[in-house]
Amino acid sequence: MSKAFRRIALVLAAVLVLSLASFAANEMGVQGAVEFTLKYDGFTGDIIGNTYLKFAGVLKNAPAGLEIVFGDSSANGFWKSIDFWNSYPTSASYVWSPYLVRMNITGAYYRGGPRVTTRLGDFQYPVPNYLAGNYHKMAGMGIMITDYPVYQDKVTVTPFFAWPKYGKDHTLSGAGITKYFWNMGAVVKMNNLIPDLSVQAYVLNHQEKEGVHVRYGAGLTQKQSFTGVNTTRGADQLILFTPGVSTNTNKWGIEVLVGPDGKILKKDANVDSVVPAGHYVISGHGSASNWINKNLNVGDTVQVMFGSPQTLMAESTAGIEASYKLFGVNMAGKFLFRTTYDGRNLADIKKDNQMAITANADYTFDFAPDFKVKVSGGFRSIDQDFAPFARQTDVRYNPIEAQRGQLGGNAALNFTLPAKTALDITADYFNKKPAADTTLDKMSGTVTLTNSALFDVTAKASVSGSRQVDKSPAEGKVTDSITTSGSLSRNFRLPTRDQLAVTYSISTTNLLVDDFSKVTLTNKLVASTNLTVPVISKLDIEGTVELGYYFAPALKIAAGSTTPTYILLLKHTTNNKLNLEAKFTKAGIQKLNWYAQAFYSVSLN
Fold it and tell me: Which end of the chain, N or C, is surrounded by fewer C-beta atoms within 10 Å?
């Protein structure tokens, strides 16, 4: 752990202690939430329970505005959980430590200066989500100054520096203490510097520096990081011992003794209890001992690397997004440039540059109050390799990554017609090269008609079609597809004066395929209401029934059905901010194929 990292950790620990002390002195107001979930699986009989905690506090008498937050890392999309159900009633069920600790200080840096917020501790990087996707662990622990005004209030800058909050020991790859990984960047916002022009520019740099490691192999072109230096060897760890240090290792591993010239002199379970002057001992257990057996042998030459950490991987992304309105035309665009460096393999160091460009515009023609036409179009050009390495999960839709490798465009016409009618026509085309010797062309379009003028029923019908052409040197493949959907929605007034919303929808997929047994027909009925119940007051109720069918070859609904799904959801919020929720789900026709979920949350003030 670096000195700077230890310094920040000590500061945050001191802040937490002081905040708790101030709370004891009645100088701090605490706000927070407790949530409990309980799930019962009727098919397996499993019961799972969890409690989730989150706290925040504000010092009452802090003139500069000091806020201390500790609890879960909600910026990452996760709660800190106590899995007490499996451990109850043991004492371990009550063990909890905050994953997120943050201090916000609001005030001016100099007399008469602007009041800005300085954030110490955990925070989410202020760059756009599409840079690395939603919840792609774009969070760190460090310092950030929010919206410092550069020119009046029209130009502001937000700089930050942080160690990432994902991976083991705050590293990207989770390799441990011998790697150093940090992020830095800034966001510049310009609002109305020119009327109707909004611009946001940003830069984000991810850099992973390799600490103590060993180079090996022919030409010393391969390298391996150590789990630790001069520390107790644990399971599956690779430890380096330096001259004069006692190894104190047991027989359950393998070690090599490295001479002053880098030659491996010995290889055994214990090569030396005290490392001789000018020598090193590389010691491994489990998977690390397997690595030693495979790559290090007596007579080989290795090189132990100390000194200034070297860059292992780096990624710098600069971007600008802007929106402008000129003569009634709304315009918006994004430009991203990314450069990457991958030096993990010295024999094959990779450097690459990628770009992404998107642009769109729209204009609305007003012919009459109930007759309007909106014309819109867009363009995109996104490199195939435009994917950030600085994230480990892909759990949310990212429009930039989802359209990698595409050169394409889209157009749309939206008609607002009399009698509460709307007609939407969209079209899209793109070309991409999934591989060096293949290309993919895809054309798609959708027509949607919506009307809500008859008997308070909102009717919607939609047809989508696409043609995909896969081209390769051997042969090309053309895939055509048509899908349809329709729905009817209406609100009904109940005797309790509550509203009951009912929606019935029907859809078909995989039309135009050669095998009609793959065509599906899905029916879905959803009913929901906010019902007034005696004593309980308002109760949110939502029920869903979904049935799907396959078509037989003769276009009869007789080939079998998909899994039917039934859901009942109940929600209620009491006057003292207690949120209750129960959900019952049944999938399939088996009697035991169902589960129930109970949930509550309460706010603490």
Answer: C
Across the chain, which distance is largest between two alpha carbons, in Å?
Answer: 93
pLDDT score of 281 more than 90: yes
Alpha-helical (H) ranges within 168-298 are: 287-295
Residue pair 571/580 in contact by the 8 Å Cβ criterion = yes
| Token pair listed for 465 | 């079609």
Sheet containing strand 213-216, edge to edge, reads 222-225, 213-216, 303-305
Distance CA(40)–CA(38), nearest Å, equals 7
**Per-residue tokens: 389:** 């390495």
| pLDDT value of position 91 | 42
Residue 156: count of CB within 10 angstroms of its CB = 19
What are the tens digits of pLDDT across the range 6-48? 454 555 555 555 555 554 555 556 666 777 778 887 777 787 7
- Exposure pattern of 67-98 as b/e (b: 16+ CB <10 Å)? bbbbbbbbbbbebbebebbeeeeeeeeeeeeb
CA dist., res. 224 & res. 288, Å (int): 10
Q: Which residues pair with 142 in a beta bridge?
A: 121, 162
CA distances from 406 to 240, 268, 312, 439, 558 (A): 47, 55, 30, 10, 41
Instruction: Note the pTM of the prediction, 2 decimals.
Output: 0.71
Q: Which residues pair with 352 in a beta bridge?
A: 340
Which of the pair, 385 or 378, is modelled with greater confidence? 378
Name the β-bridge partners of 369. Answer: none
Start-end of H helices in 315-409? 399-402
Residues 488-505 as b or e (16 or more Cβ within 10 Å = b): ebeeeeeeeebebebbeb
CA distance 70 to 30: 10
Give the residue from 424, 461, 411, 466 showing the smallest Cα distance to 443: 466
Check the CA dihedral 517-518-521-524 and report its sign: positive
In this predicted model, what pLDDT tens digit does every residue of 389-402 receive, in sequence order?
Answer: 655 444 455 778 78
DSSP letters along 203-231, please?
EEEEEEEE-SEEEESGGG-EEEE-SEESS
DSSP helix/strand/coil, 296: coil
More confident call, 311 vs 474: 311
Query: How remote is the C-alpha of 536 from its chain's centroid?
Result: 38
Strand partners, 444: 428, 466
